[in-house]
Design a protein that fits this description.
Elements lengths: L1 H17 L4 H16 L5 H27 L1 H17 L5 H16 L16 H24 L9 H4 L11 H23 L4 H12 L5 H26 L7 H17 L4 H18 L8 H21 L5 H21 L5 H30 L11 H29 L1 H6 L1 H22 L28 H23 L10 H5 L1
Helix pairs in contact: 1-2, 1-6, 2-5, 2-6, 3-4, 3-5, 3-6, 4-5, 4-8, 8-9, 8-13, 9-10, 9-13, 10-12, 10-13, 10-15, 11-12, 14-15, 14-16, 14-18, 15-16, 16-19, 18-19
Length: 516
């Protein structure tokens, strides 16, 4: 909110001095609101990229707003291509993903200003939009740096930590499928919105975007669509009841908008429904500020929101859908890869050990984010005849639970390595156990990816408790701690083995086949 309010003050100053329209202020607030959230993950390179990307995107968003008003068909097509392209570039890694997110922010601001409330202008505001976006990045950098230096927020993980292994596959990448889903949802939303609600088509398009945006799987988009619809309906009803008392151009309405936006940012961590309700209330208050009575548009807004949610869910389920189970398998395998890196690292190399630990922790958090919607779906009661289909949910929830239970032992092992790296790297009992865990993790990854195990590859050795004996030096006292942590990790790997089953075994080549 500090980023939002600082950018808002700058935009007001620019609007007054340069004689711009009020939509320039709305665009600045929308950009700053989203930037204030995503910038928490930015490192120095990301902020330099943002200084170049966001001003260009803001200028393009200003031109796009004019194009949509003067040439709707061309403007709609440009909007769809811009949003889909920003999603497609995610295939190039985390840094490209963040740059694509910055491109989308000004485009979404086009949908916020009520249609017809601001006349189409020329190009005088384009350069100022770029300057305001750059000011938002600079101000956001100052605020975030101060918050990180004072310990109010955590520092973001480095790019080396967030880098994910690229899974091999012949099918279109996840980013390509998400881009095609978004393009289909937005195209249908523009067509239906302009046909059924010519003056309020943006509600359908905005809802379709929010439902599809960041949808990691079919289960995720289903839960998000439901929360978006229910939360938006609640926010619309509440805002309609209170917004009529403010009147057009009311300063009180502006204060309430920022208060509700702050509450939305806070409650988003608890549930997407709160975010949807608060943001929809903000939009209703904004419409009231522009002079439109939200009460007269209640049924139209609810119908547009419902239509957009249905279109978003339908596109994600019908256009190259991303199965939730496939996403969970990929994220689980990535976390196990980080665990394998820790087991195979040079334990005398402290930075390499901490990097492997950070990668494992980060990937487990990413897996928990993916599986969060499945916990909601698993709690929904279903008939007994359909309970057999809950097996994927059990695998999904069980895998994240097992890996989360590895987090504390991994931290304990890393601490022990920090105290006595040489003793742990040379202890025979620890060496045997870590080799067994590395093999066990590889076996589970093969089971997840359904990759055959070569006959010559030995299976993970049976889990056994190996305790050191005899007097030890102070440095060697870390060995029992390490063995206990390794035992706990191996126990959870056994849980994962039971969930995913054994990997397929490649049949040994017969002499006749070899001769052929």
């Amino acid at each position: 909110m500090a980023t939002v309010l600082g950018t808002y003050g700058w935009a007001l100053l620019v609007e007054h001095e340069a004689g711009l329209r009020v939509d320039s202020v709305v665009q600045a607030v929308v950009i700053a609101s989203a930037l204030g959230r995503v910038q928490r993950l930015f490192d120095r390179t990301d902020r330099l990229v943002a200084c170049a990307v966001l001003p260009c995107a803001a200028a393009a968003g200003t031109e796009l707003s004019t194009l949509i008003q003067e040439h709707p068909l061309a403007g709609d097509a440009a909007f769809v291509v811009g949003v889909a392209g920003a999603i497609w570039v995610r295939r190039f890694g985390a840094r490209a993903t963040r740059a694509g997110t910055l491109v989308v922010l000004p485009l979404i601001a086009v949908l916020v200003v009520p249609a017809g409330m601001v006349p189409a202008g020329g190009h005088e505001g384009t350069a100022w939009a770029a300057v305001t976006a750059l000011a938002a990045v600079v101000w956001g950098t100052v605020v975030t740096w101060t918050a990180q230096r004072t310990g109010l927020v955590r520092r973001p993980p480095s790019a080396r930590v967030t880098a994910a292994p690229r899974p091999p596959g012949r099918r279109p990448s996840v980013s390509t499928r998400m881009a095609l889903q978004m393009a289909a949802a937005l195209t249908a939303a523009f067509a239906i919105g302009r046909d059924l609600w010519p003056d309020h088509w943006a509600w359908v398009v905005l809802t379709a975007f929010l439902v599809c945006s960041g949808a990691r799987s079919r289960g995720d988009v289903l839960v998000k669509g439901a929360w978006r619809t229910l939360g938006a309906a609640a926010g619309t009803v509440v805002a309609t009841a209170v917004s009529g008392g403010f009147g057009p151009r009311s300063d009180t309405a502006v204060v309430v908008i920022f208060v509700v936006l702050a509450v939305a940012t806070w409650l988003r961590e608890l549930s997407y429904a709160y975010w949807a309700a608060c943001v929809t209330a903000v939009l209703s208050l904004l419409y009231d500020w522009f002079g439109q009575n939200p009460g007269d548009l209640l049924h139209t807004r609810l119908a547009g929101i419902a239509a957009g949610a249905v279109l978003g869910v339908a596109a994600s389920w019908l256009v190259l859908p991303i199965r939730t189970e496939a996403v969970v398998r990929a994220r689980t395998a990535a976390a196990l890869s980080g665990l394998g890196e820790l087991m195979e690292a040079d334990w005398r190399n402290g930075p390499a050990v901490r990097l492997a630990q950070a990668r494992f922790t980060y990937r487990v958090e990413q897996l928990a984010t993916v599986t969060a919607p499945m916990r909601i779906l698993a709690a929904v009661p279903v008939p007994r005849a359909l309970s057999a289909h809950r097996r994927p949910d059990q695998v999904t929830l069980g895998s994240v639970t097992a890996l989360r239970r590895c987090a504390d032992p991994v931290d304990e092992l890393t601490d022990a390595l920090g105290r006595a790296p040489d003793a742990l790297a040379t202890d025979p009992a620890v060496t045997r156990r870590r080799a067994g865990i590395a093999a066990h993790a590889l076996t589970v990854r093969r089971a997840i990816g359904r990759r055959p195990t070569p006959p010559s590859t030995p299976e993970a050795p049976p889990r056994e408790r190996l305790a050191p004996s005899g007097p030890r030096s102070p440095a060697d006292r870390s060995v029992p701690t390490a063995l206990t942590a390794l035992e706990a990790i191996d126990t959870q790997l056994a849980v994962l083995s039971s969930l995913f089953g054994p990997p397929p075994v490649l049949a040994p080549e017969t002499p006749a086949a070899a001769a052929g």
